[in-house]
Amino acid sequence: MAAPSPIGPKRRPAPASPCALVIFGAAGDLTRRLLIPALYNLAKAKLLPEKFAVIGLDRADKSVAAFREELTLGIKSFVSDTAAEGSSSEPFAAGVWESLANRMTCLSGDVGMPETYRRLAAALDEEEKTAGTGGNVLFYLAVGSTLFAPIVEGLGKAGLLREEEGRWRRVVVEKPFGSDLSSARALNARLLDVMSESQIYRIDHFLGKETVQNIMALRFANGIFEPLWNRHHIDHVQISVAETVGVEHRASFYEATGALRDMVPNHLFQLLSLTAMETPNSFAADAVRTEKRKVLEAVHPLDEGAARRDVVRGQYGAGTVLGKPANAYRREPGVNPLSMTETYIALRLAVDNWRWAGVPFYLRTGKSMARRSTEIAICFKKAPIRLFHGVALGALGPNVLGLQIQPDEGICLEFGAKIPGPEITLGGVRMDFRYKDYFKSAPATGYETLLYDCMIGDQMLFQRADSVEAGWGVVQPILDLWQSDKTVPLEAYDAGSAGPEAAELLLRKQGREWRSLS
Ligand code: BG6
């Protein structure tokens, strides 16, 4: 099928305005794997400011030449790894990288020492003079969450967060944003003590994914879906984030975090709120963020009974994932052999508002599962098929609109059709739209859009303090129950399966079933 011509005037986004980007945690994994490749992709797309500088800050003392050399090796391996997200088969753009690398410098320092911030201030003054960054600075906290507040306080004390004479100062905070409701509140309070909400960019990388942003386009740019998008037509909604990877090399983080904290109040709730929100008055950041927060506030609070009944936690045992033998979680390097950390969670939520009353939202996410699949499935009510009474219905299921976020980004519609032949026999068919068939899109890690938005000051794709707290508020009763009652079952599932049997039951007892992962 041919790509459609774009509707409306063609607009090429303009490069961001002059600024410096300061990366705390410059030697870390996130910087190497995602931030630098995203900067490279932005540079290729000519979206970085002409007057731009990067200052990488880390503990280790190294020369600027060594810093650039390390990043060069990293970017070359990213470009040659065609399987890496955001990479492409295009050859390495040496000229683009060289001019970007020439704008990068580094600084060593302990973020607990005031001296570090004084030296950073001096380096920023220097970049303002030489690179012409205009005094605008984006501070990116690619560090462990315990350092978020101390760094922001250090920046505040050094006067580095003051927005004067038209210059801006913004801070990007990575996840995890707190580990429960009270720690998220405390972190918000500490950040808001030294800067305003308009300076804080709480990142959730799911919002950088094209197909996640497309949920709003699908719902609000089309006339046909929104009239059906409610309790009159929708039976239930399933949101799945199934991963084939296990804990990988992140045992120390994951052991203390688990699937619920790692994925639900952030990534899954982003998908939930974009799916369930009311139409915003505009696409202004606060208009959208207010509607998203209202969804989380409308989630029916889980009492203790619901936290037991409507939630299933699981942990993977040994198995076979994509044809390869896979370890049990408890045998992964760095994991406690008696670990009670969940690697899978499924839950049923109700959104108590006029649009969604009576429509269950089933959410699940897990590691070491059968297939990688992130999908939102809108499952419609069955047609009154009595008309076809006595006719073979074949495998006819309910109509489903599937929004596939990854890995095969697209949208599918499943519906019933007559199977050709003299008899009236019905069967399920599927109409598929695949992004890659339609659009020749530029490679992206998902961080390009987010970094660019920080530079142009658009907060729509970032979490506001109230949403973060509303999200933690929804899951807090589950955390409380697991904390107070150690006998809540931790269901076993085989690596490479679709998750524990108890999660199947969660839907089966209501006459429904999960979408197949196979
Ligand atoms: C991260 C989680 O935020 O998201 C990981 O910490 C998870 O555990 C990852 O694997 C999933 O993101 P993506 O983009 O790979 O689907």
Tally of extended strands?
A: 17
Q: Strand fraction band?
A: 15-25%
Distance between the termini: 27 Å
- What's the total helix number? 15
Strand order within the widest beta sheet: 16-15-14-13-7-12-11-8-17
Judged by helices, strands and strand pairing, the structural class is alpha/beta
Helical fraction equals 25-40%
Strand-helix topology:
Blueprint lengths: L18 E6 L4 H16 L7 E7 L5 H17 L13 H8 L2 E5 L5 H17 L6 E5 L6 H10 L11 E5 L7 H14 L5 E3 L7 H11 L13 E9 L8 H5 L2 H19 L8 H14 L5 H6 L1 E7 L1 E3 L2 E3 L17 E7 L9 E7 L6 E8 L19 E7 L3 E10 L5 E10 H4 L8 H10 L8 H20 L6 E4 L6 H8 L10
Parallel strand pairs: 1-2, 1-4, 2-3, 4-5, 5-6, 7-12, 8-17
Antiparallel strand pairs: 7-13, 8-11, 9-10, 11-12, 13-14, 14-15, 15-16
Helix pairs in contact: 1-2, 1-13, 5-6, 6-14, 9-10, 9-14, 10-14
The site of 6-O-phosphono-beta-D-glucopyranose has 4 residues, from loops.
